[in-house]
Write the structure tokens for this entry.
Amino acid sequence: MCGIIGYVGAKNATPILFDSLKRLEYRGYDSYGFATLDGEKIWVRKSKGKVSEAGFEKLPGSVGIAHTRWATHGKVTKANAHPHLDCTKRIAVIHNGIIENFEKLKSDLVKKGHVFRSDTDSEIIAHLIEDSIELGLPEAVMRTMKILKGRSAVLVIKNDFDGIVAARNGSPLILGVGRDEYFIASDVPAFLNRTKDVMYLDDGEMVVLERDRKPVFRNIGTGTRIEKRIIKIDWDAKHAEKGNYRHFMIKEIMEQKETIIRAINQNDGEIKKVAAAINKAYGVFLIGCGTAGNVCHTGEYIFSSIAKKHVNHVVASEFPGYRDFLTKKTLLIMVSQSGETADVLEAVRVAREKGAKVISLVNVRGSTLHRMSDFTFHINAGPEKAVASTKATTAQLAILYLLAYACAGRIEEGKRLLLEVASKINDMLNPRYDERIRALACSMQRKKNIYIIGRSLNYPMAMESAIKIMEVSYIHAHGFAGGEMKHGPIALIEKNTPCIVLTGDGSDQDTVNNAMEIKARGGYIIGVGPKKYEVFDFWLKTPDVGLASPMVNIIPVQLLAYHLGDLRGCDIDTPRNLAKSVTVK
Ligand code: AGP
């Protein structure tokens, strides 16, 4: 969940590390820190809170590592911020991941006389390296990585080693190759403004980066050297910037004018091939977490209504419970924006044990999920920086629709529908529509609870609406299947409780009846859909796109969540307690 960056080059490392940390802040933002190497001295600075240059002097040295944290072990304190040092203060380490056997390792190290300065699991890495440093830094890192259980990406510097040793097992690391300089980070946007030439590390690999030398990649288990090639990233650095927008979230919502077209621009042959594999498979699972999990849940209805095909959606963290149903004929469709979500990767590992096949929908090229999959559809949404997922959601949905239509042998019909959706979303995202939603947000900003209902394809979107509202505005929100309200949740409705009602998917009559039941108890009904029903107190019109209704209905809710967050002064792009990539289980 944390963001890590390292630099080896000819320039002063501190400004470069600062700039990269800012770009990585979406991965975690409760504290941060740096270590640079100047001659034989290691300089360390740490701070609580978000990355800020205020009060930070430029540290000497053109080799350095930096970290922005999302706490797992140990509170948010300066002492727990990375980098962590060994007892001699000659070794500095930053770490992204979680060490499952840290308690035992720590107690062994304490018995040996090591002195700890933090409550983190990560600090043990510095002490383990110290324990075997007579082997030399690369060997000591290799030995340490073999001992650690869990998921780790590690960057290490030492006072007498002119470079960085980096290793990964479970958490991402990507090397950026510049002219006479190297960048090593947990994600490409960290250095995209400096180089587009990258080399990927796979799990169980490490790289030694020394000034004026070629990077040396090695397998951690065997120590053997590995040859890697440079891959050119086709993302434009400006796509990872805010431009004229105040927040990434609103920029990314607006980008949906183009991203759906980009998503469906897939190779027909590949779509048909994957559709044939879906039709042939014995047991198809759609798997993701959070918003991507809601996309998968929608996918269950999409495949059922369009392809008449039963697929099962499962949230990734629950998937290991299904392992007994898996065989070589099982097909997994993994949906993940980042391609780094730990629960998603664990689900793939479980499926692999049983020989199941894995298809993925991923936004980040070269991500771990992309590299673990038998086949990947790139959703081509461009970098999504706001923690709240928006443009990735509609792009993922678009590809699921395309696949379902291809399964039914009607791919052209699917494409026509999606092109119509893209053009209608383009029309929707106009300033007047946005203003109307802001006015609604103004009237709702002090509400304590918001409920959302939908049926069929819009039921998962009701839950997705709740995620969006909660994470961006911190207002409690809950999505329900329309028919479930009367089985309990309707007890929560009081005078003027806002309830968003998603319609337009073919089940309107029943949904409207449920809205009436809520209204009869005092609820304030905000209708979303193509048709204005009498029960609506406020109507957010969306175009009539039939079965693709979830794709258009989620747009006004994304805008509503954004404006609620903005009006309430929330930290929209980096909401409290969250991180963009959840790389812990
Ligand atoms: C999105 O708004 C959420 N912040 C979160 O639920 C996210 O969708 C989830 O963590 C999955 O991430 P992924 O798509 O990168 O796997």
Residues 283 and 330 are 5 Å apart (CA to CA). The chain has three domains: 3-233, 249-419, 430-570. The chain is about 35% helix and 25% strand.
